[in-house]
Amino acid sequence: MPKRKGRPVVHAATVLALLAGSAYFTYELRKDDQAKVPAAQTVTDNALQNSGKATGKQTWERLNDPARSVLRDAKGAVIATFTDGARTATLKGSSRTFTEPANTSTKVVTDDWVRLMPEPWTKGAQNQQWFKDWFKQYYGSQEDDVFAIAFQYVQGSPVKKDSAGVPYEGDAVFGPYKADGVDRLEQNDFYDYLGIPYTFRNGTTMEPRTERYRALDCSGFMRMVWGYRSRYPLMATDTLGDGLPRSANGMARSKVGVDIIKLQGPSPWYTRPKNIDTLQPGDLLFFKMDHRTADHIDHVGLYLGLDTEGHKVFVSSRKEQNGPTIGDKGGVSRIDGNGFYAELFRSAKRL
Known about the structure:
By secondary structure, the chain is an alpha+beta fold. It contains 8 helices and 16 strands.
C-alpha cells in the first residue's frame, strides 16, 4: 500500500514509542457471560432479514443477488449462509468480542464464524456428502476461524512458533523503513513474515528477505490469513500459478471467488458503491487510495461486519499503524459514512 499524499509524516522514534506503550489487544470468547457485553449486531441484508419464517424445523432457502443458500433454524433465524461459487461460509455460533484498545475504541461483538469449505458452493450442495461431513465438523466448533486468525497479528499479539521454530502467528509489522527513514517498504508477503522459503503449487519458490521478517503488507496479511493459515490456494505472483493473487489489485480483478460489489466507474479512481448492504462478514474489501498507482486498486481489508455502534468495520494492515489493525490512525476502519476509507472503498469479493 503506497504512502498517502499529503498525510503528516510519523518519525521512527514516535512509532517506536507507540509500539513500546500500552500495546495489546483483546480477543474474548463469550459463552455463559453474554450479559456482560453488548449484543451481537445483526446483518443489514434485507433479503436475509425479511424472508425467514418460523417453520418448527430447519429449512433451506435460496436467495439472489448474490445467488446463495441460507440455512434457517426452527424459528426462521439464519444459521449459515453459502454463496454460489464461493468457498467462504458464515456460520452462527458463540458470540465473541474483538477489540484493539491501544489504537481504537471500536468493538466488534459478533456471532458470525467465517470458515472455508473444501469446495465452492453450488445449489443443492447441502445434499452432498462432502458438505454433510464438513458441516458436522464445523457447525458449533470453536476452532480458530478466519476472524480469530486475523486478530492473531494485530499489535501486541503473542508470538507462537511451530515445532521448527517458525513464528506462524504474533504481532506483525507492515514493513521495515525505507532508506529515508520515513516511508515503509511494501510487498511483504507471508513467507517474509515466516522467514522461510515457500514453494507454491506451480513449483515457484519464493525466498524471504531478512529485513522483512515478521512483516505483512495489506495483501500479504490477507494471504497469511486465507492462504497459509486457512489453506486457500495462493498464486506465487499476480501472474504465476492459480489461486489468490499477490497484490490487492490482482485480488480485486481476479476470477477467484465471487464479485459481491463490482468495480465501477471510470479509471483511475473509479466510483464509490452506492449500496453496500450485500456485504457479508468475511468479504474482501478493496480500496483506491493513491494517484501514484495509476488505475490499480491499492489496498485490501477483511470485512468484520457491524461494530457495537452499528458501523461497518474491517481489519487491514497499514503503514500508519505499522501492521494489521482495526484502529483509527490514518483513517477510521469504517466503510459507511464519509470517512477516509469509506470515501475510497471501491469493490468487494467473497472467496
